[in-house]
Amino acid sequence: MKTLLLPLLTLPLAMLATLPVYQPVAAVAPVVVAAPEQTRDVRQVPAFTRLSLATSAELILVQGATQKVELVGNPDDLREIETAVKDGRLRIGLPEGRWKNWGGFKSPVKVYVTMPQIEALGVSGSGSIRAEQPLRAAALDLSVSGSGALRVPVTAERLQAHVSGSGSMRLSGNSPAADVHISGSGRIDASELKTNSCTAHISGSGNCRIGVAQTLDARISGSGSVYYTGSPRITSRISGSGRVTKV
Description:
Keywords: Signal. This is Putative auto-transporter adhesin head GIN domain-containing protein. With 247 residues, the chain is mostly beta strands. Helices cover 9% and strands 57% of the residues. It folds into 2 domains: 38-117, 3 Solenoid (Pectate Lyase C-like), CATH 2.160.20; 123-247, Pectate Lyase C-like (3 Solenoid), CATH 2.160.20.120. Strand 5 (82-86) and strand 6 (89-93) form a beta hairpin. It starts with a helix and ends with a strand.
């Protein structure tokens, strides 16, 4: 009887010896990254009718009765940004000769501006200006240089739009007369802008889209393109492989 029981007892022990032994693993505490410090800084500046953004910030623009300029971001970043008015133009940016891209700030910088009267808006560098409600003006001058962006609805008797470099504009609304200039690879999307007459000048590979009712004067040097909607009378002068196309 003993000889029969021994194999039955030793077999389970041998099997147990082959089982892996698990060691307790110490728990790893989750890494908590603190959110960047944010602060609001309201700037008191003289009256202005023209605005220039010269740093890598996002500017939200409102046309309203009470002028206001407010910056939101890391306090160290905000201390570096100047808001100075000269000859009716507010310049928002680092001191002349200094520059930072989006990665240069500790956290993204936003600027909130309210202007009663708007005559000109400009972006230089990689910043952006946008508005949600139509900007009203008798004459409005818009410009982008560098890789910046400008997105605004407008209601203006006369509109000038200039893009140099790889920047972009998106325009909507109404302007009986529009003058569009592109130098470089930039683009202007004014397909939602209604205008009676438009002059479009492109030098380089840029492109423009616009809605025109009566007259379109297109002048292209290079491989640029003018795309239009409507049935205007066309006058064109093209040097290179540029084209004027109805869409």
